[in-house]
Design a protein that fits this description.
Layout (H helix, E strand, L loop, with lengths): L1 H7 L3 H12 L3 H19 L4 H7 L5 H12 L3 H6 L3
Helix pairs in contact: 4-5
């Protein structure tokens, strides 16, 4: 959040307020939804490993990505990928 607000030259609070006004979502939920959207796209259209996708999406540890994905979708990234085969 700090990085994005800095790049836009606005305060983090202002960006958060504008995001909530525009989308009705908290910043964290919005970011998680966008990350999951991109993760699903990469899992279904590439042969990148789950770890490679996690790193590409900015996760320091693939386990954190796996945990977020499973918590939000009720399915692991690998199971999601296998559903396309």
């Amino acid at each position: 959040m700090q990085f994005i607000s800095g790049e836009l030259n606005v305060s983090a609070n202002y960006l958060s307020d504008m995001l909530r006004t525009t989308t009705g979502q908290s910043t964290q939920k919005y970011i998680h939804d966008k990350l999951l959207e991109k993760a699903k796209e990469l899992l279904s259209t590439t042969n990148l490993s789950v770890s490679e996708i996690a790193y590409q999406l900015g996760f320091e540890y693939p386990q954190s990505f796996n945990k977020l994905f499973k918590n939000k979708t009720n399915i692991s990234p690998l199971a999601f990928r296998h559903s396309f085969n």
